[in-house]
């Protein structure tokens, strides 16, 4: 049983900000529990504890990937809170993994909320893009990164230093429908993005290809869209070769050029 | 002639590889990586279009469209498309290629990095760490620094591929951009089925032994993914015909999702 000093608390906040940003960007992968727990162990002055917690947590989290768009329990909070709980509560490492899970869920919910609500910033981004306003566009991106960084710092400060048990109660009292609702929203929101895409590209000549791609992907739910792209490539080749053939048969035919016009503001 | 068009140096492309780390800066469910994708390339787009704000704004607007690809491999796509942009290729060609390539690249990246590399490296390094050995996290770190460094390789590869293809593209640019549009449309159809998830949880009770699960027994029997398609077309209708603002649609969708979850429908 140990207490965490203020200095250690602050160092954990710095760690959380750095690895939290890395987790958001999926950059250097220093956000994985094996790295985060080790560094947490160093901050707490017990490297071995950090290493053991890191190894165990990493194994527990290796199968939980964000691939395919689902957000797994947050690895940063798991990486920090597992050694912190083992250190402060004096429980063994395996028990600490379970105790750290609510904190991991808490961060997962916050990020899910951001993933949905940051959609609103895209309207601003569109506006700056239209104005070719590089400065404002960069500032907007930095703002979102800052929100993520600050959130990681604050949550870790609250969970690890200020109020461990109240935070756990908070997570445990969150209603199921709310947390599930975030997930549901995440599943539906891409529809708005695709609708925007369709608004720019939808030409009636292109509808057949859209239908084929959709039907193919609905009936052959494969882990990636490469097969759909290959089918699309087949259509594209067909179109291209026909086009070349027509060109050699009737050079500069007026029909080809007007047909080309139709695509001028396609996707 | 073509040589003079080149404004990006080898150093710029290396810089682009590092900047590709910003891909997910403004990640959100509506446009996914579009904001960070545009931001990563912004200094180079500016270098290409210089003071031509109209061209720059066109390019930025195109890049703000939905994209979701793999962070480790994205440099390839950025390099490829920037080489076309640098050559002032047809916008539809650039957009069509982007839409066609990002999703397959994401699938390949997920398969390599999340499903193969991570379990292997995590397994090996965790076995060291559990015994209290620092070698564990060090192996992990070394592997991922290597993976990060490969971004430079992918990015140059994409850019070089683009520059060598540019000559060929030029001779029949209209036909190619039309073909790219077709390829893009096919993939968008697939994207709707793959990325939009709506699953109805409700069951309708017929009698005390029988109940119909709306998703499995009704919607999936009519057509799988019919709800995602329907919802996407509904959003499209509101955008196009009703000129609804995307923010409103996002807010309504979000509230709708929470409400349906509370009611136990979704």
Automatic annotation (TrEMBL), chain A:
<keyword id="KW-0598">Phosphotransferase system</keyword>
<dbReference type="InterPro" id="IPR050303">
    <property type="entry name" value="GatZ_KbaZ_carbometab"/>
</dbReference>
<keyword id="KW-1003">Cell membrane</keyword>
<keyword id="KW-0472">Membrane</keyword>
<keyword id="KW-0813">Transport</keyword>
<feature type="transmembrane region" description="Helical">
    <location>
        <begin position="178"/>
        <end position="198"/>
    </location>
</feature>
<feature type="transmembrane region" description="Helical">
    <location>
        <begin position="6"/>
        <end position="25"/>
    </location>
</feature>
<keyword id="KW-0762">Sugar transport</keyword>
<dbReference type="GO" id="GO:0009401">
    <property type="term" value="P:phosphoenolpyruvate-dependent sugar phosphotransferase system"/>
</dbReference>
<feature type="transmembrane region" description="Helical">
    <location>
        <begin position="142"/>
        <end position="163"/>
    </location>
</feature>
<feature type="transmembrane region" description="Helical">
    <location>
        <begin position="210"/>
        <end position="238"/>
    </location>
</feature>
<feature type="transmembrane region" description="Helical">
    <location>
        <begin position="34"/>
        <end position="57"/>
    </location>
</feature>
<dbReference type="Pfam" id="PF03609">
    <property type="entry name" value="EII-Sor"/>
</dbReference>
<feature type="transmembrane region" description="Helical">
    <location>
        <begin position="96"/>
        <end position="121"/>
    </location>
</feature>
<keyword id="KW-0812">Transmembrane</keyword>
<protein>
    <submittedName>
        <fullName>PTS galactosamine transporter subunit IIC</fullName>
    </submittedName>
</protein>
<dbReference type="GO" id="GO:0005886">
    <property type="term" value="C:plasma membrane"/>
</dbReference>
<keyword id="KW-1133">Transmembrane helix</keyword>
<dbReference type="InterPro" id="IPR004700">
    <property type="entry name" value="PTS_IIC_man"/>
</dbReference>
From TrEMBL, chain B:
<feature type="transmembrane region" description="Helical">
    <location>
        <begin position="134"/>
        <end position="154"/>
    </location>
</feature>
<feature type="transmembrane region" description="Helical">
    <location>
        <begin position="218"/>
        <end position="239"/>
    </location>
</feature>
<keyword id="KW-0598">Phosphotransferase system</keyword>
<keyword id="KW-1003">Cell membrane</keyword>
<keyword id="KW-0762">Sugar transport</keyword>
<keyword id="KW-1133">Transmembrane helix</keyword>
<feature type="transmembrane region" description="Helical">
    <location>
        <begin position="99"/>
        <end position="122"/>
    </location>
</feature>
<dbReference type="InterPro" id="IPR050303">
    <property type="entry name" value="GatZ_KbaZ_carbometab"/>
</dbReference>
<keyword id="KW-0813">Transport</keyword>
<keyword id="KW-0472">Membrane</keyword>
<protein>
    <submittedName>
        <fullName>PTS galactosamine transporter subunit IID</fullName>
    </submittedName>
</protein>
<dbReference type="InterPro" id="IPR004704">
    <property type="entry name" value="PTS_IID_man"/>
</dbReference>
<feature type="transmembrane region" description="Helical">
    <location>
        <begin position="175"/>
        <end position="198"/>
    </location>
</feature>
<feature type="transmembrane region" description="Helical">
    <location>
        <begin position="246"/>
        <end position="265"/>
    </location>
</feature>
<dbReference type="GO" id="GO:0005886">
    <property type="term" value="C:plasma membrane"/>
</dbReference>
<dbReference type="GO" id="GO:0009401">
    <property type="term" value="P:phosphoenolpyruvate-dependent sugar phosphotransferase system"/>
</dbReference>
<keyword id="KW-0812">Transmembrane</keyword>
<dbReference type="Pfam" id="PF03613">
    <property type="entry name" value="EIID-AGA"/>
</dbReference>
